[in-house]
Amino acid sequence: MTFLYRITWIILRIFFAIFFRWRVFNAERVPQTGSVILASNHASFIDPPLIGTGLAREINFLARESLFRFPLIGAFFSALHAVPVDRDGGGARGLKKIIERLQSGGGIVLFPEGTRTKDGRLQPAHSGIGLIVVKSIAPVVPVRVFGTFEAYGRKMKFPRPYHVSVKYGVPLNFTKLRAEAIGCDKARLREIYQQIADEIMAAIAKLEAKAD
Hints:
Blueprint: H1 3-20, E1 23-25, E2 36-40, H2 47-53, E3 61-64, H3 71-79, E4 82-85, H4 92-103, E5 107-110, H5 128-134, E6 140-146, H6 148-152, E7 165-168, H7 175-183, H8 186-206
Parallel strand pairs: 1-7, 2-5, 2-6, 3-4
Antiparallel strand pairs: 6-7
Helix pairs in contact: 1-2, 5-8
């Protein structure tokens, strides 16, 4: 870890322990080196730092491109390896940067649902993560966060003390679908993107808030 990343990582771990009394399950399932996609459900702004801070390696995050217009905030996010993306996270430039981070051996947090849940329940997956999986060779680790909706849901102005936890699942590789995607037609390719997204979301749904 870089110095700033480690300092931020330590501060967040202390904050999560004191304020949220957090728990981390099966972090050892995430590769310590090399590219990896951490695919998680999305309930709160807490989710990205919670997922990254549970691991003893640097992780890349997505951040709205507009935030980088502010010099201090932009410099801080850049130092933490944040990837600037447009509001919906699906722009061509953002996609290119995500792939570049993976190709350089980085880990990145992605949310198949695309946006935070409105009611705390899991949402259908968008096909965008399937495209990223096909264009990379990174394993996909399903991740599920618990309690973050109750701690800091989208209608809350401030976070409140609530038990939160994060669990990392068994890595998925999608070897056969990646191979099929190389030579199939566009219609089948779109189906593959959605199939991968749906399988990732199903793996997330199976995770429970306890160690296996």
